[in-house]
Amino acid sequence: MISEKLKPLMANNSVIRAMFEEGALMREKFGADNVYDFSLGNPNVPAPPEVNQAMIRLLSDSKPDLHAYMNNAGFPDVREAIAKSINQKNGTDFDKGNIIMTCGAAGGLNVALNVIMNPGDEVMVFVPYFLEYNWYVNNVDGKVVRVKTDDNFMPDLLDFESKITEKTRVLLLNSPNNPTGVVYPAEVLSAIAEILKRKQKELNRTLFILSDEPYRELAYDNTVVPYVTKFYPNTIVAYSFSKSLSLPGERIGYLVIPGEMEESQLVFDTASNTNRILGFVNAPSLIQKVIGECIDAKVDVGYYDRNRLALYNMVTELGFECTKPKGAFYLFMKSPMEDDKAFVEIAKKYRILMVSGGAFGQPGYVRLAYCVTYQNILNAKESFQKLAEETL
Q1: pLDDT(34) > 90
Q2: What is the pTM of this model?
């Protein structure tokens, strides 16, 4: 009855969401304080007060264009404010003509892939990765090519270069990374850019980086998150305010299309129209205006940092292995059992919910999202102790 194209995707429907639903049932049975749900990356830090204040003010003023259609790229004044903010933070030189407002980073990624992909083109990803990328690439009749990373989840550049073919079109990059929390440093991005420049000439084919950056503002230990367009001009950046302003349900973000990109204006115009073709038409008008007024507001990143350290220290002191995350709000822990799904099932006995690494293309690991209350992490210690005693 449903599309043949979607059947395999539905057969592998989101493991993360399924775990979240299971968590809801467990909370009903045992009480919220007695369930340790690290399954879903749903921000639990409130949006900055400026967001609600701006929303109230805008609704009170009730200007005629507040809920109106606008250019498919978004309100020009909002796009200009975003461009200036990016420039101040990263030393770039964008203006409103480089910014397209989108329905979150996911909407932006789908717009970008529709613009630059042809059927049969290949999209490279570094494993582990957010598996919904498979859906986005499948939607444009492309193929995902998985590239290895090392023990610290840094890209294996030899494997990367060896897998670039005449069908390669995009490297889909995610830093800070979901699920590992790894941040790719400048020297890694520079090396990736040099490989792509060399391969572009060799293949006589435009190769893109599509940089998925919803966690850009969530970085710790003074870690710098380099701006990818400074390394490689054929880069499209997809950004979301879901994490930086705790607004995941508002579905607001943007694409950056640099002027240095090949045929930049054509790409920009096509992406604006693709917003419409995909059915978004334009990003939500009210929240666009809110973003324009709150562009430099911030959530309390210190809250996530405290959680990060508490969870990392807890699991490593108990004997579990984990690369210390430098960004995002995830901890990717090595399963002490070869079968990470079996380990996840055992954890449920102690009311700990985590996601199998297989859901990110990396069996043998589990992901824990520490965007929970600090007290929930502290309360989980006894359960993790029991889990360690049974599995280590």
Answers
A1: no
A2: 0.95
